[in-house]
Amino acid sequence: MATPIKPSELKHPVVLLATGFGSGLAPKAPGTAGTMFAVPLVYLMQTLSIDYFIAIAVVTSIIGVWICDVAAKRLNVHDHPGIVFDEIAGYFITMIAAPAGWFWLLLGFVLFRVFDIIKPWPISWLDKKVKGGFGIMIDDIVAGLFALAVLQAVAWIGL
Q1: CA distances from 22 to 45, 94, 159 (A)
Q2: CA-CA distance, 145 to 111, in Å (whole number)?
Q3: pTM (2 decimals)?
């Protein structure tokens, strides 16, 4: 079990971002809490054009590498459970081109959490083998891509 993050660490803006403004400090299921933090953000993003939505997802993923790397070094723990910026980016990816509405927000949430928790290959391999900020982010990016594919398939068949 990782050392709890001290509240004083949240004064550092990168740690605050990496923990999803403290949502990653949840005592149980911090990754789920971090993903829950992203749900209202995606709800607000539903009115954006697909181009803007994709741009936000891509930029979040790219800057997430740096944010997670800095936070992990500062906390002295690779992929501390409280670092949830990767879950936020993964959920953003899941929700690219998703139909608007709470049903789709919830389905995307569940699909992303399933892929992030179960970690089918190659997600599990990436999680174990890739280090640093890129390593923290890449398994959630791929989980987001898997969840995106399933969500789009469900939307396409007409649920």
Answers
A1: 21, 22, 35
A2: 10
A3: 0.96
